[in-house]
Specification:
The complex is a heterodimer of chains A (689) and B (369). Chain A is of the alpha+beta class and 689 residues long. Chain A has 19 helices and 24 strands. In chain A, strand 3 and strand 4 form a beta hairpin. The longest helix of chain A is centred in the last third of the chain and has 53 residues, at 458-510. In chain B, 41% of the residues lie in helices and 18% in strands. Classes of the chains: A alpha+beta (689), B alpha/beta (369).
């Protein structure tokens, strides 16, 4: 958007009479205000994105309320309320009255705001369609009262006009905001718009937003003309862990385009091209800068501003020829897989959730990272196509699904082998599932200015497919476990409930002695079974796991049983009377005595340091002869491989000094990145089997 | 079926033999089981002596190694217990009642009424008894008869009542009871030349209204779709005891062919008692596939289910003769089916004035009027 406004500015400078409102009018299709249905979604989106960004920067757990009321004349009244830091009185006019112009021009980082015209667009649309001003109520912590002001836009001069400014006592602020918060922002506006329910609605936008922002609580209420409730929603935060703060980075030479480079050369304060290269780009050392200039056959003392077009082109070509380190990737803010799981669970009731956060990589000088989540079963409808939830930098993409790279990635996978229906092995699959795809990048490339569909990029596509394969495999093994569990449960019903009744009924009917069932049971089952169950004990905050091994064969059996558990710095195994030993990270083993024919042995233990829903099923492996139904034989070579990697990691860990960013998390009372560590190990464990 | 019905003691003994097979196996340390003939078209053979289709030698073993079969065995024991109670208490129940009673049977509960009906039939087959012996009766019998036939039926008070199916009944005719054996129903006399079985109620009412029973000197019996056991049994008795021909008048579709097969050759589900239910001399009157063209009848396209049914009939042993093969092939070729009531295209009297007289002349050599 920034670029377009820059263009607008240039146009405005040339022809003074063209106003910014005309620009808005002409371009409202890609500003998101082209239809009445879409206008309200865009307005909510701008307000909510601002709130989330502000809370993130101020390290506040966001609480956002959205009220929409239908009023006469095809208009809607929109109120958004947050508990963000608020805006100081003197900045209000700037934030609401100016289009985002150049402020983030050179900074490259992943922000939501990258994708919108900003809240000013909402003020403008309201004014253009209804002639009303927008009321802003802001409370900052440093002041004891809130400030209330009506805003209108002076479209000729691109600035806001304030009116009816007043101070509001704290009690009134509490009452009006509906929150007991000492800081926050309330926006009230009226616009020509239409509220509609469905796949493209405010409700869906907020639901999707809540999925990728599990740390936010979001509420929606839509009221009709008669005061009736038209729609409502509530998504309560499922984690108090704030997203990692994003770091700004400079552009990387590999991502450069002619226009951008030309502008940078023109605007730079550096006096020589060499210092320009060194100071304004990532990963350009003096040596690299020298090499680039050699390739471009440019004198390093040349002034950047005066470079002719041919020189800029040879500079661009040199960027691609010289080997340059990849840009840093800590500027990205992935949601991280455990949090995606929480977000999905907050919005969708399902039986199973798998998530994958791939490691960051780089495409054309831009760091990017792909994350995928998949939920399955539960209340999800099994007849329709799978719901596809697309996100770019935590912002929901709701339009142009078909033309989006993220959709194409999902469509390119043969989901049939993972147990979803998919006619012809292509297209969006069918079944009781939802798939989330998130692309985090400093520079998300869209197919058009509407910014609703990600454009083709081979590297992103490949990463996406890898992530999807991974969640697919998870789903497959989950379904296999469910299938096995069902089968063994049937068999248990058969021998524990039905067979004894057949025996007692037939003997009493015939007046004969009852038969001994144990040889019959052995004949019917003729196998060793493993049953596993994880239950959440709220009182002690423990996830309790119980593993039972039944020997229904004719001879005694001995096994070592290995359970996969969510090991991390904050979790530990407790109430484990059988002891056992650590097999590898996340794997605990118990050596069992021989189990006699017809008898059962159980292993009980609990894991502390988890939250409800973190751990729902334990994968169980065995070592020993003969199959154990309901568990898998452990792969010893892969296990050895994992141990090696672990030892390596331990050595690495010893040399790592905690950096500054971790102190941020500690301040918030959250153990430093523990979830991240565990999820990576978790992932490593997944690759094992 | 008088000849076949068993005494109380015999029935209980036969039922106990089923439980004993299970118990004996368990005493030997083996999973309990039940042995049954395969009840599908693959296991019905023509019985030369009885002139009907009966179950062949293929057996299926239902043993308690899978949950489904174990359920069946337990249900069989519950049903046996229930039947013993009824026999001892001189009570009877409908199949539907038994289905509801099974609600209290825990793991022996039936999942659907179809399951309980099937199990009652299974027990008939393994014990050689009839469901009447078990004191089970069907929900409703269905059939109605109109015509100059006279029956004697024993009513609830045990008195014999004389009923003429033309003079003593209303427009809906004589309702056939579920038990039509001689202890309940006697065939007294008649003044007709043949019996006509009609598939649909609409056509039955049309023939009654047009007085076809009198003009054609016949008895009319409404089949109500796939005919119940008692309907088939009473036709069989009329055919055997009075020597009257049975003609069957149905829609022209694959399902009507099956209705006729169950009347003439025996039904797959009740092949164990085909000799009591089937009338081998029954004649299919129409509507034939070639009638659609010959009479230019309004027709519907065959659905995919219809086509599947026709293809299944081609491998059904009961349809393995030239006549039926031709009928089925013709229907597949035309891709069309027609209802009995499509004859109304030519007016309400066409069926009684033209169609039926022509078909009767053509197929039976009977001349009317």
């Amino acid at each position: 958007m920034v670029v377009e406004m820059d263009k607008a500015q240039r146009i405005a400078n040339k022809q003074k009479q063209i106003s910014i409102s005309e620009f808005f009018e002409k371009n409202k299709h890609f500003l998101g205000f082209d239809t009445h249905q879409r206008a309200i979604i865009t307005a909510v989106k701008e307000a909510v994105d601002n709130s989330l960004d502000a809370c993130e920067e101020a390290r506040i757990l966001p609480e956002i309320h959205v009220y929409i009321k239908r009023i006469e004349g095809g208009k809607l009244e929109l109120i958004t309320q947050d508990n963000g830091p608020g805006i100081p009185r003197d900045s209000i006019a700037n934030v609401f009255g100016k289009f985002l112009l150049g402020s983030r021009f050179h900074a490259i980082r992943q922000t939501r705001g990258q994708q919108g015209i900003g809240i000013t667009g909402v003020v403008m649309y309201s004014q253009l369609t209804t002639g009303s001003s927008t009321t802003v109520l802001s409370k900052i912590e440093a002041e004891s009262t809130a400030v209330k002001v009506d805003l209108a836009l002076d479209t000729k001069n691109n600035r806001a006009l304030k009116s009816n400014e007043e101070r509001i006592p704290i009690e009134e602020w509490f009452e009006e905001s509906g929150m007991q918060t000492l800081h926050g922002l309330r926006i009230k506006t009226v616009m020509s718009a239409k509220y509609q329910r469905g796949r493209q609605s405010v409700h869906q936008y907020l639901r999707m937003t809540s999925i990728v922002n599990p740390h936010a609580t979001i509420r929606l209420k839509v009221i009709g003309k008669e005061g009736e409730t038209v729609d409502e929603g509530e998504w309560v935060r499922s984690t108090s862990k704030l997203p990692r703060p994003v770091v700004e980075i400079k552009p990387h030479p590999h991502g450069m385009q002619f226009g951008t480079l030309q502008r940078m050369l023109k605007n730079t304060k550096e006096r020589t091209v060499k210092s320009f290269l060194r100071k304004e780009f990532e990963k350009v050392s003096p040596l690299v800068a020298k090499k680039i200039l050699e390739h471009a056959e440019l004198d390093e003392k040349r002034r950047p501003a005066g470079l002719p077009v041919e020189s800029i082109q040879s500079l661009l070509a040199a960027f691609m020829e010289v080997k340059i380190q990849s840009p840093p990737v800590d500027c990205l803010s992935p949601i991280e897989d455990l949090l995606i799981k929480k977000g999905l669970e907050k919005a969708i009731d399902s039986r199973y959730a798998a998530t994958v956060t791939r490691n960051p990589s780089v495409s054309q000088g831009n760091p990017f990272q792909v994350e995928v989540g998949l939920v399955f079963g539960g209340d999800l409808p099994s007849d329709g196509t799978v719901e596809l939830l697309r996100f770019a930098n935590r912002v929901p993409l709701m339009y142009q699904q078909g033309g989006c790279l993220l959709t194409k990635g999902v469509e390119s996978i043969d989901w049939r082998r993972y147990g979803l229906e998919q006619p012809g092995g292509k297209g969006v699959p069918k079944g009781p599932a939802a798939i989330l795809v998130h692309l985090a990048s400093t520079n998300v490339q869209f197919t058009s200015e509407a910014k609703e569909a990600v454009s083709d990029n081979e590297e992103v596509f490949d990463e996406l497919r890898r992530a999807l394969f991974e969640v697919g495999r998870g789903l497959q093994s989950h379904r296999k476990r469910i299938g096995q569990r069902e089968k063994s449960r049937e068999k248990f019903d058969l021998i524990n409930k039905i067979l004894p009744e057949i025996a007692s009924k037939s003997s009493s009917m015939l007046g004969r002695e009852p038969p001994d069932l144990s040889p019959i049971i052995t004949k019917i089952m003729n196998a060793v079974f493993c049953e596993e169950e994880v239950i959440w004990e709220a009182r002690d905050k423990l996830a309790k796991c119980s593993i039972k091994i039944y020997n229904y064969t004719a001879r005694a059996r001995a096994y070592t049983i290995i359970a996969k558990w969510p090991e991390s710095d904050s979790t530990s195994i407790v109430q484990n009377e059988r002891g056992g030993r650590k097999e590898a990270r996340g794997l605990w083993a118990w050596r069992l005595d021989a189990i006699d024919p017809g008898s059962m042995t159980s292993i009980d233990f609990a894991v502390s340091g988890l939250n409800k829903g973190d751990w729902k099923e334990a994968e169980v492996f065995y070592r020993g002869n003969g199959e154990v139904i309901g568990s898998e034989k452990i792969d010893e070579t892969l296990l050895e491989e994992a141990r090696k990697q672990e030892r390596l990691q331990e050595v690495v860990d010893e040399f790592i000094v905690p950096d500054v960013s971790t102190s941020f998390h500690q301040k918030d009372g959250v153990p430093l990145d523990s979830n991240v560590v565990s999820s990576e190990i978790w992932e490593a464990g997944d690759k094992l089997f | 079926m008088k000849e076949k019905t068993r005494s109380k003691e015999d029935t209980i003994e036969a039922l106990h033999a089923v439980a004993a097979e299970m118990h004996d196996r368990m005493m030997r340390g083996e999973p309990p089981r039940m042995t049954l003939p395969v009840r599908s078209k693959k296991n019905i053979n023509f019985d030369e002596r009885l002139n009907v289709y009966k179950y062949g030698k293929k057996k299926t073993i239902r043993d308690a190694t899978s949950l489904g079969s174990a359920h069946q065995l337990l249900r069989a024991l519950f049903v046996t217990e229930f039947m013993e109670e009824m026999i001892e208490g001189q009570k009877s129940s409908t199949l539907r009642e038994m289905y509801y009673i099974s609600e209290g049977w825990g793991y022996g509960k039936f999942g659907s009424q179809n399951e309980s009906n099937n199990l009652a039939e299974d027990l008939e087959i393994v014990t050689g008894c009839l469901r009447e012996d078990f004191k089970l009766r069907p929900e409703e019998d269905g059939a109605r008869i109109i015509g100059n036939l006279t029956f004697e039926e024993r009513n609830r008070r045990g008195e014999w009542m004389r009923i003429n199916c033309r003079d003593d009944v209303g427009d809906s005719g004589y309702g056939v009871p579920y038990n039509v054996e001689s202890e309940k129903l006697r065939l007294l006399g008649h003044d007709i030349d043949f019996m006509m079985a009609i598939e649909t109620g609409g056509m039955f009412d049309r023939l009654v209204e047009n007085g076809f029973d009198e003009s054609a000197r016949c008895g009319l019996i409404h089949l109500k779709g796939q005919p119940a056991r008692s309907t088939r049994r009473i036709m069989k008795r009329i055919n055997e005891e009075w020597g009257l021909p049975i003609v069957v008048f149905t829609d022209c579709d694959p399902w009507s062919f099956r209705i006729f097969a169950s009347i003439a050759y025996g039904a797959i589900k009740t092949a164990h008692i085909s000799e009591y239910l089937a009338t081998p001399s029954a004649i299919y009157l129409g509507i034939d596939s070639d009638d659609i063209k010959a009479y230019d009848l309004p027709a519907d396209e065959l659905t995919s289910r219809d086509i599947e049914a026709l293809k299944a009939e081609k491998s059904d042993p009961r349809f393995q003769n030239q006549e039926w093969t031709d009928q089925i092939d013709l229907m597949l070729e035309l891709g069309e089916k027609a209802e009995q009531q499509s004859l109304a295209k030519y007016g309400l009297d066409f069926v009684t004035d033209t169609y039926l007289p022509e078909k009767l002349r053509q197929k039976l050599g009977i001349h009317i009027g």
